[in-house]
Amino acid sequence: YNGIVKYIKDLLTKKWHYVILDEGHKIRNPDTQVSKLVKKFDTTHKILITGSPMQNSLQELWSLFDFMRPGLLGTYNAFMDHFATPITQGGYANATQHQEATALEIAKALKNIITPYILRRTKAEVQEHIKLPEKNEQVLFCALTREQRDLYMGYLMGSTVRSILDKDSKFGDPIRARVLVALTTLRKICNHPDLYLYEAHDDDEDIDEESFGNWKRSGKMSVVHSLLKIWLKQGHRTLIFSQSRAMLCILEQHLQKHKFEYLKMDGSVSVAQRQNLIKTFNENAKFLVFLATTRVGGLGVNLTGADRVIIYDPD
């Protein structure tokens, strides 16, 4: 999609027989530059492939169909007025019976319009052809260490949280922004205390290299450490995802100290290098762990070399 933005002038000079969008939900926002550009291709054959055609609102569905079949769902404003708004209103907890009935009828009408253009395949339908092993998901609850608990409670009792709870607070920032800051800080403490303790440091002068990132100081890190030791003995290979590059660096430091062979992919890795990293991990079994941020590793990445996945800090 970055290539479309970069080379759009050259691409539009060609007469394309087909335009196929993989990870098509990338154009779900009709106002983004890439969404507007892909809709300029003049071709009679368009295919859009996605596992999540709609994530937040019906507006996204309109944007996808505006690429595949312009005009099928009307203009954006007409679609919002006649489809999206009534369907959304009918789903509210305080919706009237009339609104619920109207929403149901309109949803059925919308389904009838779009069904001829959708070929849907669930995992159950293709399971026997692709031979994927059964996925087993487990949620592990990790107890905070004493240090984490003290930091957590200290922050909860601090001025930031008090300002959120105080209706008469004179803080300048909107309350929603302050809530987000507070939740982000608490998440850092839960991931590893050093993410919170050293977030204000711009250099390494005051960092204790001996204790920084130590796995014993984090409940989550302790669990990851134990899992990796077990899986190493059992011959498993692991993907570890984190939303934070800082947390990924702490995990990387841990792997280095314990002599794990690993590869790492985050936003600092160029797009050209990413596929080489993925190929190396999939083909070379000596690499036992692949570290990736969720933003980089969660889209269009085919990491088949691992049979274990740890999502360190899920949404």
TrEMBL record:
<dbReference type="InterPro" id="IPR027417">
    <property type="entry name" value="P-loop_NTPase"/>
</dbReference>
<feature type="domain" description="Helicase ATP-binding">
    <location>
        <begin position="1"/>
        <end position="71"/>
    </location>
</feature>
<dbReference type="InterPro" id="IPR001650">
    <property type="entry name" value="Helicase_C-like"/>
</dbReference>
<feature type="domain" description="Helicase C-terminal">
    <location>
        <begin position="223"/>
        <end position="315"/>
    </location>
</feature>
<keyword id="KW-0131">Cell cycle</keyword>
<dbReference type="GO" id="GO:0008094">
    <property type="term" value="F:ATP-dependent activity, acting on DNA"/>
</dbReference>
<comment type="function">
    <text>Involved in mitotic DNA repair and meiotic recombination. Functions in the recombinational DNA repair pathway. Essential for interhomolog gene conversion (GC), but may have a less important role in intersister GC than spn-A/Rad51. In the presence of DNA, spn-A/Rad51 enhances the ATPase activity of okr/Rad54.</text>
</comment>
<keyword id="KW-0132">Cell division</keyword>
<dbReference type="InterPro" id="IPR038718">
    <property type="entry name" value="SNF2-like_sf"/>
</dbReference>
<comment type="subunit">
    <text>Interacts (via N-terminus) with spn-A/Rad51.</text>
</comment>
<dbReference type="Pfam" id="PF00176">
    <property type="entry name" value="SNF2-rel_dom"/>
</dbReference>
<dbReference type="InterPro" id="IPR014001">
    <property type="entry name" value="Helicase_ATP-bd"/>
</dbReference>
<dbReference type="Pfam" id="PF00271">
    <property type="entry name" value="Helicase_C"/>
</dbReference>
<dbReference type="InterPro" id="IPR049730">
    <property type="entry name" value="SNF2/RAD54-like_C"/>
</dbReference>
<dbReference type="GO" id="GO:0016787">
    <property type="term" value="F:hydrolase activity"/>
</dbReference>
<dbReference type="GO" id="GO:0005524">
    <property type="term" value="F:ATP binding"/>
</dbReference>
<keyword id="KW-0498">Mitosis</keyword>
<keyword id="KW-0469">Meiosis</keyword>
<dbReference type="GO" id="GO:0051301">
    <property type="term" value="P:cell division"/>
</dbReference>
<dbReference type="GO" id="GO:0051321">
    <property type="term" value="P:meiotic cell cycle"/>
</dbReference>
<keyword id="KW-0378">Hydrolase</keyword>
<dbReference type="GO" id="GO:0005634">
    <property type="term" value="C:nucleus"/>
</dbReference>
<dbReference type="InterPro" id="IPR050496">
    <property type="entry name" value="SNF2_RAD54_helicase_repair"/>
</dbReference>
<dbReference type="GO" id="GO:0006283">
    <property type="term" value="P:transcription-coupled nucleotide-excision repair"/>
</dbReference>
<protein>
    <recommendedName>
        <fullName>DNA repair and recombination protein RAD54-like</fullName>
    </recommendedName>
</protein>
<dbReference type="InterPro" id="IPR000330">
    <property type="entry name" value="SNF2_N"/>
</dbReference>
